[in-house]
Each structure stands twice: as C-alpha cells, then as structure tokens.
Design a protein that fits this description.
mainly alpha; 92% helix; flat
Length: 63
C-alpha cells in the first residue's frame, strides 16, 4: 500500500507540474481539448493507457 501511495503522489506531482509552470498555456490546451471530437479523445486515452502499460512492463522486466 505504501508503494501505491508513492506512485499516486508521483503521478499527481507530474500532472500538476504543467499547471504550475505555465498556467496560461495549460488553459489554452484545455480549450483545445474541449473542442476535440470524442473519438480523438478516446484514441488518445487508449494510446496513453497502452503507453503506461508498456512503461510498467519495462519497469518490471528491468527490476
């Protein structure tokens, strides 16, 4: 459970970084995302999930 919370904390840190560094650019990016078609958002989300699983797999193989 300790490892899980460490991972969640790291994800939250990385996700929050762009908003802290460049809030105006992030606002523009959110506006662009709101205008994207649903299918494109689904494909992007699916790609990100596959990339995340790939990173986890590689980390498990190395460790």
């Amino acid at each position: 459970m300790k490892f899980f919370f460490c991972v969640m904390g790291m994800v939250m840190f990385v996700e929050g970084l762009p908003y802290f560094i460049s809030p105006n650019k992030m606002r523009e990016m959110v506006m662009m995302i709101l205008q994207m078609p649903e299918g494109a958002l689904r494909r992007f989300g699916f790609f990100m999930m596959l990339a995340g699983l790939g990173v986890i797999y590689l980390a498990m193989e190395i460790g």
